[in-house]
Amino acid sequence: MKNFSRQLLVAATMSVAAFGAAAQAQALKFGFVNTDRIFREAAPAQAAQAKLEQEFSKREADLNSQGAALKTASDKFEREAPTLSESQRLQRQRQLADQDRELQRRSREFQEDLNTRRNEELQQVLERANRVIKQVAESESYDLILQDAVYINPKNDITDKVLKALNGK
After folding, report:
1. pLDDT band for position 9 (50/70/90)?
2. Band of the pLDDT at 148, cuts 50, 70, 90?
3. Coil, helix or strand for 118?
4. Which stretches are tagged as biased composition: Basic and acidic residues (predicted)?
5. For residue 145, what is the enclosing H or E element?
6. Minimal CA–CA distance to 107: which of 45, 164, 65?
7. Residues in a beta bridge with 31
């Protein structure tokens, strides 16, 4: 019985060693891509940002000028308020409040439109980046590519390769 347990122990040890060697021989090759860096540094992302700035710059300038005009009107009202009659003061306060509400509404619409367009543009950049990541992974035989991680060893970071491929196209 003692001999049988010893043989079983030796067989189990040999099995674990063989399994470990097989697992070691087939180690996974994995890489990491920093998506934030792609969005900041890739030529398509920069082109998308420039496109958005061009598309929304006029509306933003209009909102800024309306805001400045409202501030000027509010400052003027503050200076003139003591000399105005009660009805004039109330009327101007309502006008300023209406203008402020309108400006806030337009600002919200602007932000919503800008965010929607930014998301559309970034989605296109992400789709293009994912295609490039897949090409890099296939050409260099990666088993796994991560895009979000708490910590990654810099030797596994393939962001530079992806940026080079994205900017080269």
Report:
1. very low
2. confident
3. helix
4. 95-104
5. strand 144-146
6. 65
7. 145
Neighbouring C-beta atoms of residue 60, cutoff 10 Å: 13
Amino acid in position 20: G
Q: Residue 101 is which amino acid?
A: R
Domains and CATH numbers, the chain: 28-167 (3.30.910.20)
Give the Cα separation of 146 and 67 in Å (integer): 45
Name the residue among 106, 114, 8 with its Cα closest to residue 55. Answer: 114
Q: Say if residues 142 and 30 touch (Cβ distance below 8 Å).
A: yes
pLDDT tens per residue, range 98-136: 999 999 999 999 999 999 999 999 999 999 999 999 999
Structure confidence at residue 46 (pLDDT): 94
Q: SS3 for 17? A: helix
Q: Is 133 helix (H, G, I), strand (E, B) or coil?
A: helix
CA-CA-CA-CA dihedral for 8, 14, 15, 21, to nearest 10: 170
Instruction: Provide the whole-model pTM.
Output: 0.70
Token look-up 């490039």 returns 132
